[in-house]
Amino acid sequence: MHVFTNYYEWHSAITDRCGIVLSRAYCDKRYSALSDPEIPSTRRFKETYGEEYLDQVKAWFAQAQKEAAE
Questions:
Q1: Is residue 35 part of a domain?
Q2: For 35-46, what is each residue's pLDDT tens digit?
Q3: Is the pTM for the entire model greater than 0.90?
């Protein structure tokens, strides 16, 4: 089960619906957290959505971080 199927759905949900600014610092913090398997929320995310989707979300944060730097 995946919540978002592409970057644009994911980005829109975070920025438009949630009102979160995807700044470089925010993306870096979230990417780091999602990369740490010792964090309970990261473990739950992986258990719920699977490693493939976790990797996809990390890639989306990396893409948003790159866009924020431009």
A1: yes
A2: 999 999 999 999
A3: yes
